[in-house]
Specification:
The protein contains nine helices and 13 strands. By secondary structure, it is an alpha/beta fold. The structure holds oxa(dethia)-CoA (UT7).
């Protein structure tokens, strides 16, 4: 039986930081409101000439170094992103070019904030069916590019960044399970309403925040149960919750469902904001670098986002 295991993790954040105090200068908002309603204090923002593939490339290099394998050993590249450099080619192809890797398949996955879980699920299946051995998975987004900074209802949430893992074939079970879901019925609650890019129509995020919040909390409750039941595990078996960072109140609700103290939740939202597909691998790297997550620990990763899409991964590091 072939299993897949994470053998390297890396991340990258653009240098520029946008604080709540700076947002106060241009928006009818306050640091106090943003902090108490979302948990966010600051987020990183790309420069005009900084592309999603630049962030993804830096995160990928860090993960490859940590895995201690040559880039030429990678035989599949998957990038989860909603903010590609261009409509085509894919960010994955641009990362492949930047890494100097030739002749391996490379493609993007678009599942918005759940993109990293989707990519992990796809990569796990490629490995388990012996179709790939070393997969580079990147979650990368430049959400600031599709944010309307005059809309206080959601512009305060988003940040930019990238996180990457190397998932490799192993005789040890690293990925215990993945579950991915979608329901396209509520498209208008969270979307970028552009239909024709030839028109000068809106290309920024529109969100009914309070509706999305309620659906997210209920759905995350269900996927926690789904992951535990599928693996015959109990809540207390989980060492760390490594969640998509959408809102500190959503993280607290999921921790409550798991009867888990917030001490066991990797929280980066205060410093990163919501970086969409990048947020889970960024949190994973943060948890490892801060010596919280250690080899052998059992991690529950979960996400909910536009589509709607949602999913979980149970991972033994
Ligand atoms: O990752 C993808 C999935 N996304 C999410 O999961 C996001 C889910 N939603 C949220 O995180 C929250 O709904 C938000 C943070 C977006 C909004 O928080 P909320 O507590 O749901 O606020 P609300 O939209 O219900 O608005 C409450 C009040 C309103 O004022 P009134 O009508 O009560 O007078 C808003 O106009 O807060 C006002 N408001 C603000 N005030 C100051 C909304 N945005 C702001 C703001 N600053 N930035």
């Amino acid at each position: 039986m072939i299993f897949s295991k994470i053998i390297g993790v890396g991340s990258f954040l653009p240098k520029k930081v946008l604080t709540n105090r700076e947002l106060e200068k241009t928006l009818d908002t306050t640091d106090e409101w943003i902090t108490s309603r979302t948990g966010i204090k600051e987020r990183h923002i790309v420069e005009p000439n900084e592309l999603t593939s630049d962030l993804a490339f830096e995160a990928a290099k860090n993960a490859i170094n940590q895995a201690n394998i040559g880039a030429n050993k990678i035989d599949l590249i998957i990038v989860a992103t909603t903010t590609p450099d261009k409509i085509f080619p894919s960010v994955a192809c641009n990362v492949q070019k930047k890494l100097g890797i030739k002749n391996c398949p490379a493609f993007d996955i678009q599942a918005v904030c759940s993109g990293f879980i989707y990519a992990l699920s796809v990569a796990d299946n490629f490995i388990k069916t012996n179709s790939a051995t070393n997969v580079l998975i990147v979650g990368a987004d430049s959400m600031s590019r599709i944010t309307d900074y005059s809309d206080r209802s959601n512009s305060i949430l988003w940040g930019d960044g990238a996180g990457a893992v190397i998932l490799s074939a192993s005789n040890k079970q690293g990925i215990l399970s993945t579950h991915i879901h979608a329901d396209g019925q509520h498209e208008e609650l969270l979307h970028v309403p552009t239909t024709n890019i030839k028109d000068n129509t809106q290309q920024t995020i529109e969100m009914n925040g309070s509706q999305v919040f309620k659906i997210a909390v209920n759905t995350l409750d269900q996927i926690v149960d789904e992951a535990l039941i599928a693996n015959n595990l109990k809540k207390e078996d989980i060492d760390w919750l490594v969640p998509h960072q959408a809102n500190i109140r959503i993280l607290e609700a999921t921790a409550k469902k798991l009867e888990m103290s917030m001490e066991k939740v990797i929280v980066t939202i205060d410093r990163h904001g919501n970086t969409s597909a990048a947020s889970i691998p960024l949190a994973l790297d943060d948890g490892i670098k801060s010596h919280k997550i250690k080899e052998g620990h059992l991690l529950l990763m979960e996400a909910f986002g536009g589509g709607f899409t949602w999913g979980s991964a149970l991972v033994r590091l």
